[in-house]
Design brief:
By secondary structure, the protein is α+β, with helices and mostly antiparallel strands. Helices cover 30% and strands 32% of the residues.
Length: 213
């Protein structure tokens, strides 16, 4: 039976999401160094030195059926084509209630502000809602991560609330801080409109082949 924790490869014209393995380590070390993402205090992105440990952590959670981790492979033209440019996951999997969170996501600086994030979300949401009949998908982010919040809101997700002093962020460079977590969600009833919006935006963002003749 296919579940939210079952490894799967998802693909469209912009990105391929494939099961995370240690074969992605070198690309991911290069990716996190692009923009020094691991130095950002409001999010936890592994440094190159931490990448192997982080891959191990995600794979352990997959074996426990609480996470399904993906390597994000860019299909955008340019130097990053065919490379792993980040990570994303299905996490906090609640198979019995058909709910899941899309999170633990990061992308290298070179592919930020491109169609790649929307393309990733289209694949993950389509798999969750259309293939696995989820009733809701959550997104969570630090209250101060304004770029992430704007991206989630552009998808059409609704803010369910803010979990105040939700977690202690233990950042290796910035030290410990309390995290207020914004919780967003999309429901199955909202998905058709969000799917149409994503498909329309991606069709405009992806260059179409010219008609000849």
């Amino acid at each position: 039976m296919t579940t939210l924790a079952t490894p799967v490869t998802l693909r469209n014209d912009v990105v391929r999401l494939e099961p995370l393995t240690h074969q992605h380590t070198d690309d991911l070390c290069e990716a996190t160094a692009d923009g020094d993402l691991h130095t950002l205090w409001f999010t936890l992105v592994p440094s190159p030195a931490e990448m192997t440990t982080e891959i191990d952590r995600r794979l352990t959670l997959q074996r426990e059926a609480s996470m399904n981790p993906f390597a994000v492979i860019s299909l955008l033209p340019g130097d990053t084509y065919g490379k792993a440019v980040g990570m994303t996951t299905f996490m906090h999997i609640d198979q019995s209630n058909q709910r899941v969170e899309i999170g633990s996501t990061w992308y290298r600086a070179a592919v930020q502000r491109t169609p790649l994030n929307s393309a990733c979300k289209r694949l993950l949401l389509g798999h969750a809602f259309d293939t696995l009949a989820c009733i809701a998908v959550e997104f969570r982010t630090h209250v101060m991560n304004h770029r992430s919040r704007r991206a989630i809101e552009r998808l059409g997700a609704k803010l369910d609330g803010v979990l105040r002093s939700h977690q202690i962020n233990r950042h290796p460079l910035a030290g410990n801080s309390l995290r207020d977590t914004c919780v967003y969600s999309l429901t199955q009833a909202e998905w058709p409109a969000v799917r149409a919006h994503l498909d329309s935006g991606l069709s405009l963002a992806i260059p179409q082949p010219a008609n000849i003749g």
